TrEMBL record:
Record-level Gene Ontology MF annotations: ATP binding
Keyword Ribosomal protein in annotation: no
UniProt source species: Halorubrum trueperi
Pfam families per record: ABC_tran, oligo_HPY
Region described as Disordered: spans on this chain: 325-344
Lineage, highest ranks first: Archaea, Methanobacteriati, Methanobacteriota, Stenosarchaea group, Halobacteria
Keyword Metal-binding (UniProt): no
Subcellular location field: Cell membrane
Protein name per the record: ABC transporter ATP-binding protein
Topology term for the membrane: Peripheral membrane protein
Length: 344
């Protein structure tokens, strides 16, 4: 098998705060292959943006990688200097579109001029080449090429988001990380952006990591996915496999909360409880408190991410081989059968 494009390996990330340390990410591992459409899903505060920022060396000043490695084409990049990252990796190899990126274009400069400036700083391209590249990218994201001669304020929100995606691809990166790229947009615009991301992956030969709290967006668009809960990877692998047979209670319950055309009469479940505070060492399963099937063993140590069979699916649930059976029983009955889950 060829080497993955990006590998996150046993990653721990902490934030220093005046009230102590926040263990935002604990022992996270996943890999992204060349030309893959990868989804990173989890609820608010699960650590998605923290991981994304760490990949491009953009953690907030109080955050740091305290263990593990981030490798790009096999080379560790988490320990690169700011200069190395900005000269070799950021935008040229890995482009990151943060949440709320709507204001990231210069409002008082025409887009063609912004492209020429970008090319001047980062490449030896001619002015014409920069203009041609932006025109080509506008067409890939579904904007008429001639609109590159306009100002950002002449664009609607959805068009601005597409222009931002076009700019992020300008320097021909191999990996694009899009953090909640459609959250601020209406449903029709969301759908158009997602369709364009798919064609970008094919036409620009780029891998995409899409970050979202909406698992249905991942099921509909991605090849592989990682589910995050409380800074831990709960489940990882092929999207179809995880849709058909989730092997972690969190992804099982998320999947149950997603309307499925195959089971139109199924009740949609709600995941109860709050995510953990993450102030102390995370040496337990962060889903145990909310899990209908957790046992005392789930809070005694941190569950390892382990392979499910020989397929491309990994879970951090120690009861993974019982999930399907447990899911068919009532959570309340199950809880008393296995010894309770009140690890408050
Ligand atoms: N600069 C910071 N200082 C302290 N804690 C932080 C900081 N940034 C994030 N956190 C905490 O780290 C954890 C992970 O946050 P993160 O923003 O990565 O989650 P997320 O899954 O991207 O959430 P959202 O979808 O709301 O953006 C949360 O507990 C959050 O409060």
């Amino acid at each position: 098998m060829s080497e993955p494009l990006l590998e996150i390996d046993g990653l721990d990330i902490r934030y220093e705060t005046k009230d102590g340390e926040i263990h935002a990410v604990t022992d996270a591992s996943f890999a992204i292959d060349t030309n893959e459409f990868f989804g990173l899903v989890g609820e608010s505060g699960s650590g998605k943006s923290t991981i994304a920022k760490s990949i491009i060396g953009g953690l907030d000043d109080n955050g740091s990688v305290t263990a593990g490695e981030i490798r790009f084409r096999g080379e560790p990049i988490h320990s690169m200097t700011e200069r190395e990252l900005s000269e070799r990796i950021r935008w040229k190899e890995i482009a990151y579109i943060p949440q709320a990126s709507m204001n990231s274009l210069d409002p008082i400069m025409r887009l063609d001029k912004q492209a020429v400036e970008l090319a001047k700083v980062h490449t030896d391209w001619s002015k014409q080449r920069a203009i041609d590249r932006l025109t080509e990218l506008f067409e890939v994201v579904g904007l008429p090429g001639e609109r590159i001669y306009e100002y950002p304020h002449q664009f609607s929100g959805g068009m601005q988001q597409r222009a931002i995606i076009a700019f992020s691809l300008f320097l021909e990166p191999s990996l694009l990380i899009a953090d909640e790229p459609t959250t601020a947009l209406d449903v029709i615009m969301q759908d158009q952006i997602l369709t364009h991301l798919k064609s970008i992956q094919e036409e620009e030969d780029v891998s995409i990591v899409m970050i979202t709290h909406d698992i249905s967006v991942i099921f509909e668009n991605c090849d592989s996915m990682a589910v995050l809960h409380g800074g831990q990877v709960s489940e990882l692998g092929d999207v179809t496999r995880m849709f058909d047979s989730p092997s972690h209670p969190y992804s099982y319950l998320l999947q149950q909360a997603f309307p499925d055309i195959r089971h139109p009469k199924r009740d949609l479940s709600v995941i109860e409880g709050q995510p953990p505070q993450l102030q102390d060492e995370v040496d337990y399963c962060t889903f145990a408190n909310r899990c209908p099937w957790s046992t005392d063993e789930c809070v005694e140590s941190r569950p390892p991410l382990q392979a499910v069979g020989d397929d491309n699916q990994y879970t951090s649930c120690i009861r993974y081989d019982e999930i399907e059976e447990l899911g068919h029983r009532s959570p309340e009955n199950t809880r008393s059968e296995v010894g309770g889950s009140n690890h408050e």
